[in-house]
Amino acid sequence: MVRLAILLTVTSPHRAAAGPAWPSFRGPNASGIATGSVTVASWDVASGRNIRWKASVPGLGHSSPVIADGQVFVTTAVSESGKAPLQVGLYGDPGSADDTGVQKWQLLSLDAATGGLRWERTVRRGVPRQKRHTKATHANCSPATDGRRVVAFFGSEGLHCYTVEGDEVWHRDFGVLRTSPTVFNDALSPAGLDLEWGFASSPVIHGGRVYVQCDLFTNGFLAALDLRDGKEVWRTPRKDTPTWSTPNILASGPRPQLVVNGWSHMGGYDLGTGSPLWQMSGGGDCPVPTPVIGRDLIYLTSAHGPRRPIYAVRPDAEGDISLHAGETTNRFVAWSLLRSAGAYMQTPILVSNLLYSCHDDGILSCFDAASGRLVYKERLGSGGEGFTASPVASDGKIYFTSEQGNVFVVPPGPAFAVQATNRLDEICMATPAIADRCLYFRTRSSVIAIGEAR
């Protein structure tokens, strides 16, 4: 470990003192927002300016950090051959990476104050059951924590639960979770290819349960498991295209629900039983973004194929609410934009009354969240950079990170501006975390804690 030891006590305005500051992918309720946390607009990794610490992480993983009570949890897959190829940027190759040797799937706990390694656990060792995409890793799923336990999902390599002190509690093997077609035919591969892309949907913890979304090529499902022992509480079959989307939870209101993205089945499911509450079709054919919940609406977006839609759905929706031909709204769909609006890889972010959606080529669109009216559409970066990490926000700043490790700081509001551009000096595919005036970036080989010295 390489680290700069500077005192940091992790707290968060979103929780009670004993709870997690940034519990899962995109933080509390997957909002991406740390309300009340003061974060810096600029830094310099080379000189150490506003760098609290930098810790080396072995292997390769695109999973995001999660934070609870002074610990930063990250997952990784370590190839024993030392070979872990990664191809980033804007390209359309659907092939699999040459990374099929023996791996060690690991869960790590870093000290949030210093970056020092608290503990490291190898949850599984062996040959991957599935190949991965050239742009993916064998550790795509972000962990989740309730402040007492932490769960790490490695797709076909299982779901693993540990205490925050590093003691194994339970694990579940769901078998091979295939999220790619057996034979793929398109203009890029007219003869067809046998493709394997890996798994990326992250677990979510709520009310003593772990929720997982496993949209697969065949036999997809949603499941709720008891956090105490891993026993299945309910399982609901899903028949949709494979997705990499992480579910979200709408806990308020008369019908608490698990909200999921999809191509032919976006929808809400009863938290207690898994029963479907509402559904709609009409997404892009490779759904990745997590549903965003706020301002009494549920925002769903996806891309790829002929559509790049955004839908704003009312949370009291019921039944099949799909739009018919020529419709852009109905009783339960407040508004929609059916083409050239949605995001492919990034989950949008809702700040105040504006919804920000960034496509993988860096085109940032800002919409009025209540009506869907386009406020502005501008480019981040030079146009040659890919964008995969989802934006996060705090202290009047929205952080957009390119795959090349350039972080664009955009002030929220109706006028587009770039307040600062910062370099991480490494490839960055993972969404950052925020806790107590500090940004935590997971790069290809490090975790970097960024904030003013204390």
Description:
- The protein has a five-stranded mixed beta sheet with strand order 14-15-16-17-21, with no helix packed on it. It has a four-stranded antiparallel beta sheet with strand order 1-33-32-31, with no helix packed on it. A four-stranded antiparallel beta sheet has the order 2-3-4-5, with no helix packed on it.
- The radius of gyration is 20 Å and the shape is globular.
- 53% of the residues are buried.
- The chain has a single domain (28-450), classed as YVTN repeat-like/Quinoprotein amine dehydrogenase (Methylamine Dehydrogenase, Chain H).
- Helix content is 0%, strand content 35%.
- Strand 14 and strand 15 (257-260) form a beta hairpin.
- The model is unreliable at 1-18 and 187-191 (pLDDT under 50).
- The protein contains no helices and 33 strands.
- With 454 residues, the chain is mainly beta.
Entry keywords:
four-stranded antiparallel sheet, globular, disordered N terminus, Methylamine Dehydrogenase, Chain H, mainly beta, 454 residues
Brief write-up:
The protein has strands at residues 51-56, 66-68, 71-79, 103-111, 117-126, 144-145, 149-153, 159-163, 168-172, 204-206, 209-214, 220-226, 232-238, 248-250, 257-260, 266-270, 276-280, 292-294, 297-301, 310-313, 319-320, 333-337, 349-351, 354-358, 363-368, 374-379, 392-394, 397-401, 406-410, 420-423, 433-434, 439-442, 446-450. It has 454 residues and is mostly beta strands.
